Each structure stands twice: as C-alpha cells, then as structure tokens.
Amino acid sequence: MIFRKIYLFLFLLLLADAFPTAKDSCLNINESNWNKVTKDKSYVETFKDFDTKETTSEKTSTKMPVMDLGGFKYVFYILVAGVILFVVVKILQNINSSPAIDIDKGRVYTLSEVEEKILEIDLDKIFNDALIAKDYRLALRINFLIVIKILSLSGKISWTKEKTNWEYYNEIKDSTIALKFKEIVVPFETIWYGEHELTEAQFNRLQPSYESFKIKQLK
Asked: Would you list the DSSP string of 88-140?
C-alpha cells in the first residue's frame, strides 16, 4: 500500500515537469513560424495609411455633386436671358406709364407726382391738356383722380395714395353713391391696370358716367 502511494507521487511529479516543457516547446515553434512569416514586413505605416484613407473618404463624401446639363445648358441660358429681357421691358413700360405732365407755368410733374398731390394740383387743366393731346388713356386716369378728389373734399372718403379703389368703395356710406362709384371703378381698372389702349370712341362712351357722377357730387 505504501509503495503504491510513493509510486503515484513520483508519477505526478513527472507529469508536472513534462507539461511546462511541452508548453515551452509549442511557444518556441509558434514564435519561429511567426518570424518566418513576418520577415521583411513592416506594419509601421498601417495606422497612418488608415487615417489617410479615412480622411480621403470624408473629403469625397462631402464634395458637392456637379450637375452636367449637357446640351440643355444652352436652353437654360436662353431662358435666363428671356427672364432678364422680360424684367427690362416691364420696367420700361412702367416708366412710360408715368408720363411727364406740364402744369403750373411750365413745372413738369410725373404722373406719380400728380397722384401724390391730387388735393393740391389743378387736375382739370391736366385733364383738358390730355384731351388736346388725344392721350385718352391719360385723360381717363386724370378724370378718375378728379372723382377721388371730389369724394375726398366732400368727406365721403378719406384719401391716401396707398388705399385701393375698393377701400374707397367700402368707405362710402351712401349706397347709391357707392353703386355709381363702382360702375366707374370696374371699367377704369380693366383699362388702366390691364394696360389697354383707349380710343377716342371708347373714351366718349365712358365719359358720361364720369360727368354725371361729378355733377351730382358737386351739388
């Protein structure tokens, strides 16, 4: 029994010595193989290269896309030129729609200035001058301003240049006067703001309603 225990103890000691030896042997083989595989190879630049690639990728992803219109770019240029031309023409039309008016002993006013001073300027003289010049569209505009001036002086409306004709219409308390005013406003706005030309015959058809309205308000 004693010999068996001694034998078992010696066997365990031999095993304890054998395992470290095998372990060291495996490590030696692995290290030797690793040196052969990694010989003449450098990993120093690995992280630098990765950072460079990442930075390049970010620059590429943030670069704005370039639109290639191809043959359509000429169509685009033509459209832009057309828009610019349209704006220039409208500006010139607005300039032409505010003609110079000679009143007060040679003093020249633009229509815009006349519209700002309708309570101060002799509108009847401008109206008669427009008829003599056969500028019936301007005569219609001045005649309408005379109506506004009469309504303002009689206290039926409170005149300011910024108000619309329909705001004046809503200010008139007398429904009969308001209805007559509306009959003048509708054709006037169609011709003036629609930039339509006005012939002498057309002007003569509209004039009676103006004269009737003015006579009734001046009584």
From this structure: HHHHHHHHHTS-EEEETTTEEEEHHHHHHTTTTS-HHHHHHHHHHTT-HHHHH
Q: Which residues contact 112 (CB under 8 A, 6 or more apart)?
A: 98
Residue among 218, 199, 205, 197 nearest 124 (CA): 218
Is the torsion defined by CA of 132, 133, 136, 142 positive or negative? negative
CA distances in angstroms from 71 to 75, 76, 77, 80, 147, listed in the order given? 8, 9, 11, 15, 58
Instruction: Return the SS3 of 25.
Output: helix
Q: Which amino acid is at 2?
A: I
Helix then strand then coil, % of the chain, to nearest 5:
70, 5, 25
User: What is the helix (H) or strand (E) element at residue 28, kind and residue range?
Assistant: helix 2-37
DSSP code, position 159:
-
C-alpha–C-alpha distance, residues 88 and 129, integer Å = 30
Q: Which structure tokens are listed for 200?
A: 């002498």
pLDDT in tens, 96-149: 444 555 555 555 678 889 999 999 999 999 999 999 999 999 999 999 999 999
Q: Six-digit token pair at 41?
A: 């190879």
Q: Global pTM?
A: 0.55
According to DSSP, the β-strands at 107-110 and 100-103 are antiparallel
